[in-house]
């Protein structure tokens, strides 16, 4: 393989894909700001503990996906595999608990050592929202409603479905874990090797196994919903009632567990059938113990992350094609005047490209290729008269205007 290829699982992003991804981020910022969210930009690398502690040693991300290295100073560093842990670290570092609730939005690259395929990369990009402070289920509802609004604005309302589950509080989860392990132990001989290992480390993850043999066993496993205590049950009922009140359709998916250890109560994923195995476009949940796990105060949180590549691939946002104005000075004196005229037009918000070489015919051909709306021709004769020649490329119509009237004549 040529050395000039990007590293495996990384890509150069440009053209329509870049425009679509930018549109996703801009839509996210606009929607999230209507819910009071403010920008937070955290470093793309942190001390490894920032991720290892909250995500859990047994999670897929920590056990096999992190980009971890020792830097020149001997510090153990990890490229962020996700945003939440870093956002919570920033919350603690900056004493943000003085000012609750915190509504924080972020976007940028994340890094996971994965097997690359369509919609799955080693460097990918996320939009991320965290609401820190509120312990009540209404906060979960608002976060999901915000995600749903974003997805609809991206034209995905008919393409995704919300899968919703509760993981209960710690007490419920401990009770369930016991029942689940007891059941799975009885079928240990038929479980995949991975799942036998998870039995010790992270048994809930077995519910999410892609192995066909595991799936058969999991189908009859006890359900988490049967082990919820009263408080957890009430919390989940409130989330569901809230979603119904805002009009967010959902499916209760009893098998939904999130890959990271830090979730409690609400867990959700917006899934599409259009991207094959990479069907989850946006996912999140509540993580009440995370900030404490990082050594901070007992502050609750609920949030989500969306994969920008996957959202951009699915999204049917119309990309607005900006048609440029092409300015064509003929000769040296005209070139200098063209600088000033181009700036006048940009001041008015127009996109202006200059073409300073070749004969007029060639330049007009290039202008059509660039999908220009107008050609502005400026030769010695025009210069002397203080005029430019404007040619509207669609109609072929052309007219002369004095320098001072140019902007008005093409923006009218
Ligand atoms: P998956 O099940 O697809 O591996 P995940 O549960 O690991 O997803 P999260 O940690 O919830 O993903 O990240 C949130 C979103 O980020 C995902 O829903 C997905 O859209 C996107 N995402 C996660 N990993 C990748 C990746 N390697 N490449 C591209 N997008 C990704
Ligand atoms: Mg993953």
UniProtKB/TrEMBL annotation:
One example of the protein's molecular function in GO is: histidine-tRNA ligase activity
Listed under GO biological process in this entry are:
histidyl-tRNA aminoacylation
- UniProt entry tagged with the keyword Ligase: yes
Q: What is its EC number?
A: 6.1.1.21
Q: Which positions fall inside the Aminoacyl-transfer RNA synthetases class-II family profile domain? A: 1-324
Q: What is its main location?
A: cytoplasm
Q: Which UniProt keywords apply?
A: Aminoacyl-tRNA synthetase, ATP-binding, Cytoplasm, Ligase, Nucleotide-binding, Protein biosynthesis
Q: Name one Pfam family in it.
A: HGTP_anticodon
Can you tell me which residues the record assigns to a coiled coil?
none
- Which reaction is this enzyme known to catalyze? tRNA(His) + L-histidine + ATP = L-histidyl-tRNA(His) + AMP + diphosphate + H(+)
InterPro entries xref list: aa-tRNA-synth_II, aa-tRNA-synth_II/BPL/LPL, Anticodon-bd, Anticodon-bd_dom_sf, His-tRNA-ligase, HisRS-like_core, HisRS/HisZ, HisRS_anticodon
Output the Gene Ontology cellular-component terms. Answer: cytoplasm
Q: Where does L-histidine bind?
A: 82-84, 112, 126, 130, 258, 262-263
The UniProt entry, under HAMAP family, shows: His_tRNA_synth
Which PANTHER family does the UniProt entry name for this protein?
A: HISTIDINE--TRNA LIGASE, MITOCHONDRIAL-RELATED, HISTIDYL-TRNA SYNTHETASE
- Indicate the family of this protein: Belongs to the class-II aminoacyl-tRNA synthetase family.
Q: Which NCBIfam families match?
A: hisS
Protein name (record): Histidine--tRNA ligase
């Amino acid at each position: 393989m040529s050395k000039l290829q990007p590293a495996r699982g990384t890509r150069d992003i440009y053209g329509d894909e870049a425009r679509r991804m930018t549109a996703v981020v801009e839509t996210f910022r606009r929607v999230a700001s209507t819910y009071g969210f403010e920008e937070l930009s955290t470093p793309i690398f942190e001390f490894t503990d920032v991720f290892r502690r909250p995500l859990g040693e047994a999670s897929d991300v920590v056990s096999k996906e992190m980009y971890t290295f020792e830097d020149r100073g001997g510090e153990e560093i990890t490229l962020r595999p996700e945003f939440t842990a870093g956002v919570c670290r920033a919350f603690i570092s900056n004493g943000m608990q003085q000012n609750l609730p915190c509504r924080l939005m972020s976007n940028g690259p994340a890094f996971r050592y994965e097997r690359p395929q369509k919609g799955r990369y080693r460097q990918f990009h996320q939009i991320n929202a965290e609401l820190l402070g509120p312990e009540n289920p209404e906060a979960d509802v608002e976060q999901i409603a915000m995600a749903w609004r974003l997805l609809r604005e991206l034209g995905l309302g008919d393409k995704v479905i919300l899968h919703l589950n509760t993981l209960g509080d710690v007490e419920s989860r401990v009770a369930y874990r016991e029942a689940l392990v007891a059941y799975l132990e009885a079928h240990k001989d038929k479980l995949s090797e991975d799942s036998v290992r998870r039995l010790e480390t992270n048994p809930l993850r077995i519910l999410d196994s892609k192995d066909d043999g595991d799936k058969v066993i999991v189908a009859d496993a006890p359900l988490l919903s049967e082990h919820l205590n009263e408080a957890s049950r009430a919390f989940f009922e409130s989330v569901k009632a809230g979603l119904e009140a805002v009009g967010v359709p959902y499916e209760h998916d009893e098998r939904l567990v999130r890959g990271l250890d830090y979730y409690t109560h609400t867990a959700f994923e917006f899934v599409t059938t259009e991207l094959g195995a990479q069907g989850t476009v946006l996912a999140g949940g509540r993580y009440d113990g995370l900030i404490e796990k990082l050594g901070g105060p007992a502050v609750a949180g609920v949030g989500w992350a969306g994969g920008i590549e996957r959202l951009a691939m699915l999204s049917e946002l119309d990309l607005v094609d900006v048609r440029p104005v092409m300015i064509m000075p003929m000769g040296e004196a005209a070139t200098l005047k063209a600088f000033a005229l181009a700036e006048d037009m940009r001041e008015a918000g127009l996109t202006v490209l200059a073409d300073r070489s070749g004969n007029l015919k060639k330049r007009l051909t290039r202008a059509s290729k660039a999908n220009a709306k107008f050609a502005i021709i400026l030769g010695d004769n025009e210069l002397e008269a203080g005029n430019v020649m404007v040619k509207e490329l669609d109609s072929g119509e052309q007219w002369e205007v004095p320098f001072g009237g140019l902007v008005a004549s093409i923006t009218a």
